[in-house]
Amino acid sequence: MMRCLATIMTAATLLAPAALAQISGEGGPIRVNAGTSEVSQRQRQVVLIDEVDIMQGDARLRANRVTINYANSGDEDATGMGGFGDIRSMVAEGEVFYVTPELKATGDRGIYDAEADTITMTGDVVVVRGEDVATGSRLVMRLEEGRTTLDGGDGRVQFNISPNSTDSGEEGEAAEDAGGEDEEASN
Length: 187
Prior knowledge:
The protein is of the alpha+beta class. The chain has one domain: lipopolysaccharide transport protein A fold (Sandwich), CATH 2.60.450. The chain is 17% helix and 49% strand. It contains 2 helices and 10 strands; from the N terminus they run αββββββββββα. It has helices at 2-15, 170-186; strands at residues 30-33, 36-40, 45-56, 59-72, 84-99, 104-113, 118-129, 132-142, 147-151, 158-160. The model is unreliable at 1-20, 77-82 and 168-187 (pLDDT under 50).
């Protein structure tokens, strides 16, 4: 019964319209699925454990454990307890996967900072965009700027780039067709 209540409270927290946390540029409701949730109103924290899966719009965050820290809602009663406020940060740990239509990123740890509007992944980071693959130890995504930085840490950043890769492959085929016509014209 308590587990069910905690899950409902967690869902209410994450679906609240006042929440500013964004794992997707689209915003909107946040859907959560986890084996266990713990809510600590005094610490203004929600801990999700065991196969955590968080979805918002076209983005998805999966990890073994996610800790969500939120601000005071301003609705405190005499006990100092109040409703859930805006989400300040999310910390994802253990087999972290962040997926959007543009990229897939994996790492050991991920941190979303609402104030800075950044997602930082650390550990053995792998980023995939289309057919391009990059590896490093620290990835910082500045969401509003649309800017991504990958650091190699003690090692080096490594890339495998496919210059002619496209989603539909039409541009590559058009280039091949044009090349074929040129060859025929020169014969």
